[in-house]
Amino acid sequence: MCIRDSINAEYMGKICFMQRNFRAFLRVSSLPLKSMVGRLICGRLASVIPPPSPYPLVHGGMKPFRSFSTLPPHTRVLMPSLSPTMEKGGIISWNKKEGDKLLAGDVLCEVETDKASVGFEVQDEGYLAKILVQAGTKDINIGHPIAIIVDESSQVKAFASYKEEGTAAPAKAAPVAQQGQAQPKQEQAAAAPKPQQAEQKAAPAENAGHEVAASYAAQLAAKQLNIPLSKVRGSGFGGRIMKADVLDYSLGRQSGAEPAKKPAQEAPKKVEKPAQQQAGAAFVEIDLTPQRKSIAEASIEAKTHIPHYYVNSEVRLEKLTALLAEIGAKNIDPLDIILRAVAQACKDIPEVTSQWMKTFIRQYKSVELRVTDPKKNFIIKDAAHARIGQISELRQKATQAEIEDQTNFHVIDLRSTGILFAEELVDPDHSCALVLGQTSHQVIGTSDPEKPQFAHLLNISLSCDHRTVDGATAANWITKFRGYVENPATLL
Predict the structure, then answer these.
(1) Which active-site residues does the annotation give?
(2) Which uninterrupted H or E stretch holds 130?
């Protein structure tokens, strides 16, 4: 709640009352210095109390009420940003009803982000006075009011017919037109593209020839808020600008930043199934989840802007299997040694951990591994200095939670899926991605045809960004990696 504004308003009212009485006294007084003394006292009194802040504070998804509002003191709950790449979200369900008492830590509602479904917890005690966005609503902009919270239960009734100013009701999706049916002219006119907004102001002269490192979500947020990325200070890995940095700059939380004027918010859309589905059509239309939208955007960017090429090979695992049997460590998996070999090969050839920055190539000094498989994800920070036991502990603690930290090399483990080779898309923040395929036992030829050998082989596929990693560099990395895996004693 904006307590400071209320106190300031109260004191300013008392000051105005004192000024009026003092001026009335001076009008009937005959003192020659009455004007000078009056101005001096009134000026000092007015300077004692600072003027009320014209900008209400916003913190943790809560926006305090304005002191001139005719409604009881209340807090507007804003759509929170629960993911660094989240731009819009949806309300899956409300865990509280209007009039319910709220305690700090209670889950107010389930929010669908671009990564997963997350519970939104309230920070302070109060009563839920009004739900502004109903459950099932999607595409809600960050910062859009979704609920009202008050301090006392008696204040709930004042918001029974409350409607947020400047926000429209959730728009419903129009039914899909029948095949071959022409659209009305009004709909065609509405579908016409609108003229583009004014271009962003030019960056400062000192940054004119230097590309700013920023994530894809940060670039979209900066474009929507009309903020030059050259003025934003990055907090990501290697100074990379994340979406949260752009939002902090827009709110004036970074030094030297001015609050940016946000564009008009779009009304949240509530998706409804087309009429054909309800009538028993021969197809089913599935709504896009924020996770699916995020994957689609990243895939389009990777496939459109990154020139991919792929290097496939096989690695023998006989010595690695024998070493594990000799050690007898039950907690050590072959993947732990393989990841250790990946980190050492990346350390020897750092070009594979670089990143394309349009006007230059950024090469990282440490190896940050991202490991995924169909069931779990985990990160190995500074992997070149991580021991096999530490890697094993991270693997056992891995979960299905989405990874938000910055990495520079991606390993996809598909050994348990039965897939021999797979060509993975290179992440826009990476230069390479390594896929571990299914292992197999094969007969290989020897100098003596009567004594064939059986080899335990691991199929691997390395996806590379040709802008940063040449074919010779990829071949050298494969050679280094094979050398470590086929001679695992060098990793101990």
Answers:
(1) 466, 470
(2) strand 126-131
